[in-house]
Design a protein that fits this description.
The structure holds two protein chains of two kinds. Chain A has a single domain, classed as Response regulator (Rossmann fold, 3-Layer(aba) Sandwich), CATH 3.40.50. Chain A is α/β, with parallel strands linked by helices. Chain A is globular and about 30 Å long. Chain A is built from five helices and five strands. In chain B, the strands form three sheets. In chain B, strands 2-4-5-9-8 form a five-stranded mixed β-sheet, covered by helices on one side. Classes of the chains: A alpha/beta, B alpha+beta.
């Protein structure tokens, strides 16, 4: 699949394993960044279609990163906020910042991958309709 | 009017966001719960494997050990010719250590059976006072060998209780055996029991070195022995499963066991269990 995906996570194990899991699921173009600032830079340069961002980041937090990347666009850019610990306030903030989904990271990242597949499917369906 | 409509739209969006967040949180909690359940299952499976492994290994080790013990006995009886004094001495040492090994294997097997819930328990109604008397009588020769007084202090006649007499004998033997290990010659071990309407309480007190306060809880964990726990022959025999076995047995009997002690002032091991059948 030629969708461009950006992972922003300061936890290098999470970052690496999510990348591997996505590759296993057939995604080939994956970028990574370990901070919101770097993520924004990569997003500007590489123009991903899906961004996975951890809500808890040092420096600029995941919510602010999400908001700024959403502003960069394009309109159909999808953002998935991820978390290690589920929290309703955190979920609400992610929604306000423009996240399209909010999922918990499990040891196999199955739900993160499923969320990526889901937003990509929605994306393709919309494209067909157009 | 326009402002009101805007406010309503804003509130509707806010509500939508809140519903979204609560839905995502619910989903997340369900996922975490499922994940936890799965991990728990895996751990249980690993634990079962471990118990099975331990049981199998100890069982397998026992067979050659039995043959060794039998062979030593045959040699000692002179079945294969006369035995010199020094040969007898060494054969005796081999025999003692084989016995020791056998004891360790029994401890491990007992615990793995109790943990695995495979222990066949014959539940019966029995007189615990009489059972204690019998267990103590059996241990008197050991105590006399060590020049330790084994005293039974009874106040009243104990009621009959429901449980496994075999396991209760094991608890008492373990506790008195421990006390014997740690009590120096000329010391005393006192076994006392009492009961109220619903419980019987048995205590085994010794005049040994006592146990550090911080070790009182830990000594019931597997493979733990008290820092003070050295008999006059250096570190004691056993691998520290005796008390763990006692605790497992007490749990099965809906009772509890604990220790009270101060270094230098001896130790008291106490167990308490219901007299009524509660299983």
């Amino acid at each position: 699949m030629n969708k461009r995906i950006l992972i922003i996570d300061d936890d290098h194990v999470d970052q690496k394993m999510m990348k591997k899991s996505l590759e296993k699921a057939g995604f080939q173009i994956i970028f990574t960044a370990d901070s919101g600032e770097k993520g924004l830079e990569v997003a500007r340069r590489e123009k991903p279609q899906v961004v996975i961002v951890d809500t808890l980041l040092p420096g600029m937090d995941g919510h602010e990163t999400c908001r700024q990347i959403k502003q960069l666009g394009p309109d159909d850019l999808k953002i998935i906020a991820t978390t290690g610990a589920v929290d309703a306030v955190d979920a609400g903030r992610a929604r306000k910042a423009g996240a399209d989904d909010y999922v918990v990271k499990t040891i196999d990242y199955a739900y993160v991958i499923a969320a990526v597949q889901k937003v990509i499917n929605e994306h393709s369906e919309n494209s067909v309709e157009k | 009017m326009k402002n009101e409509n805007q406010e309503i739209a804003r509130l509707q969006k806010e509500l939508g966001d809140m519903q979204w967040a609560s839905q995502k949180t619910n989903d997340g909690i369900k996922i975490l719960y499922k994940d936890l359940e799965r991990k728990n299952e895996e751990l249980k499976k690993l634990d079962r494997l471990r118990s099975k492994f331990v049981a199998t290994v100890s069982h397998e080790l026992r067979t050659p050990l039995t043959i060794i013990v039998q062979a030593i006995e045959n040699l000692l009886t002179g079945a294969f010719g006369p035995v010199t004094d020094s040969q007898r001495l060494w054969l005796g040492r081999i025999n003692d250590n084989a016995d020791h090994l056998n004891g360790l294997l029994s401890e491990i097997l007992d615990l793995s059976k109790l943990e695995g819930g495979q222990e066949e328990r014959k539940l019966e109604c029995f007189d615990i006072g009489e059972l204690i008397h019998r267990s103590i009588d059996n241990m008197q020769p050991l105590a006399q060998n060590k020049n330790v007084a084994l005293v039974l202090k009874t106040s009243n006649k104990l009621p009959k209780i429901w449980g496994s007499s075999r396991q209760l004998i094991q608890v008492i033997t373990n506790l008195v055996g421990n006390a014997l290990k740690f009590t120096p010659p000329k010391g005393q071990i006192e076994i006392a029991f009492e009961n109220n309407e619903s419980n019987v309480r048995v205590s085994v007190s010794d005049t040994g070195p006592g146990i550090n306060r911080e070790d009182l809880e830990k000594i019931f964990d597997p493979f733990v022995q008290s820092e003070n726990g050295h008999s006059e022959h250096g570190p004691t025999k056993g691998i520290g499963l005796g008390l763990t076995i006692c605790r497992e047995i007490m749990t099965l009997h809906k009772g509890r066991i604990w220790a009270e002690s101060e270094p230098g002032r001896g130790s008291h091991f106490i167990f308490e269990m219901p007299t009524e059948r509660k299983q």
